[in-house]
Amino acid sequence: MNIYDIARISGVSIATVSRVVNGSQKVSEKTRQKVMDVIKAEGYTPNIFARGLGLDSMKTIGIMCPNIADNYMARAISHLEQNFHEYGYDCILGCSGHTREAKENYVKLLLSKRIDALVMVGSTYGGNGVEEKETAYIKNASKQAPVFLINSWIEGENIYCSNADDFSAAYEVTSALIRRGKKRILFLYDSETFSAKQKMEGYERALSDAGYPVLGDLKFRTKNEIHHARDLMLAYKNLEFDSVFAVEDGLAVAALKYAKVKGISVPEELSVVGYNNSPLSVSCEPELTSVDSRIEQQCYIAVENIVKVLEGNTEVSHRTIVPCEIVKRCTTDF
Amino acid sequence: MNIYDIARISGVSIATVSRVVNGSQKVSEKTRQKVMDVIKAEGYTPNIFARGLGLDSMKTIGIMCPNIADNYMARAISHLEQNFHEYGYDCILGCSGHTREAKENYVKLLLSKRIDALVMVGSTYGGNGVEEKETAYIKNASKQAPVFLINSWIEGENIYCSNADDFSAAYEVTSALIRRGKKRILFLYDSETFSAKQKMEGYERALSDAGYPVLGDLKFRTKNEIHHARDLMLAYKNLEFDSVFAVEDGLAVAALKYAKVKGISVPEELSVVGYNNSPLSVSCEPELTSVDSRIEQQCYIAVENIVKVLEGNTEVSHRTIVPCEIVKRCTTDF
DNA sequence: TTGAAAGCGGTACCAG
DNA sequence: CTGGTACCGCTTTCAA
User: Fold this and answer.
1) Hey, which residues does B9 pair with through a beta bridge?
2) Largest alpha-carbon pair distance within chain A?
3) Partner-chain contact B280 A285, CB within 8 Å
4) Of A95, A107, A254, B117, whose CB has the highest number of CB atoms within 10 Å?
5) CA gyration radius, chain A
6) How many CB pairs under 8 A join A and B?
7) pLDDT one-digit tens code per residue, B275-317
């Protein structure tokens, strides 16, 4: 059942059917009704490929993230999908992992699908301090379709970003711990992504501003896997700290598990702060104080902006910084 | 840059370019090389819409789930995407929620995108005991594209399913608790989906087989949200139980939180078993014994089977039942 | 307000 | 092995 069939049955031309389908004003009410009835009766749906061929668009957004099994990414994609759906866009998904090559291939693939725009979720896609050539493929992609980065940051004509203010959040958390008399704040991290770096800088700045030294042995890097991280911490005999600031909730929970093994009481002897306000933070015991990076709001901004750009609006801000919120629970005494 | 340009530049016909692009054997090595060079030099990519128009396929799989922010779904989608990607298929995602209307609309939408197949993840899409008319839209969809249900079950010519053996898992867990002397096993659930029903039936059967009564006041339904569930349990003054079997890890964690408030020790006074083996189960304290429904394997089966069907293979099993695994941790003494 | 016809960029059949 | 050409189904311009 195609447009020709509908035209034949309703006794009009395919041009008219096309106009009816696309809600053109230049059709008499009578004709419209007649055609509509036939369309309903026959259950006709326009062929999306043919339409795509003509319009060079299928109203589809490409979404990339390193790993959708991660709660943070999953929440982001959930919001993106929902918001785009309301604007009539569909989402095609790509989980790229963290290697440059895979990321590059995925971008190429999505682009070859003639997506209307590309959204990349996660701080693995670039930011301050990342080498130019590492992100060249993204700049390249932006020549073919607008690119929106969530929690990454690259400057470019057709590139838009929304970033959590991780620096400030880390600064605040660290300062709060200092105000509570903490002397040795362990910085737990699992990668050197843009956002991890921002957090580390906030942490360092807060220490400096308080006149504290930035100690290398207080920066602890490990995989974001609870048992693995806990065991690695336990293996380091000389690890001494009175508080923990982790760049991921999973790492913070690992610190909690570490405390449990060591018989250290939280928050009395040890304060712990996590990041992302994930379900983990209310599952653990005691429940975790965690920074919420407002992923929902970031996704909202992303969709609004992308849609504006696709509508030809040129007054879209290339970077939006969203403040974080510190959700206080039981692992801190502030 | 289209196929005509490439043909002109390489001095051949578009038919030959098409053959080269599609790896046809009937091209001389010399011609192939010549054309390939031009393609490389010009950075030509075939227009996917035009190709789709001709072949009526874009090698795209539609994936639906109620909510991708849920860890179980996210893991499923992650595996599906990865496996399909290896076969050269892309995934377009739809988060449908749980209402019939939304689910139906999403199916319609995905179908209108001419997806090659539809994969539906979750037990919300139908199974034993669900009314025919509730799943009619899925049977209908299967006329247009093969449908694969993960953890739902509907019989139909073009419908394929993989199901966790939730009944047996629930039976085993309940029996194990009984063997440990538990007399009042609380069944915590949050919905009446197919899988929840299977679990409940396994629970009931184990009780009956052990000569225990199936008590209505030992079935507790609440939203799958840790604090909400905990508070609801606390609000019921006469709730008495010595063990908990929850259909979701979140609910099991809620039970742990309940025990914490009540000062009940786990597992000494109370045994708790969750479901899905999610990150929650290792985040909580003590760590949760949980049923792993092998989502990874189910997704693997789904992809293998779908690909077979799409290749015209007709000997594909319409239903595969995957055994679960009980992952023993600290909230039980078995 | 309507229709005829020219694309859009491929695929695949049929000749040669 | 290669080229010519008829589709695929829709959008849009141009005339009427």
Assistant:
1) none
2) 86
3) no
4) A254
5) 25
6) 127
7) 999 999 999 999 999 999 999 999 999 999 999 999 989 899 9
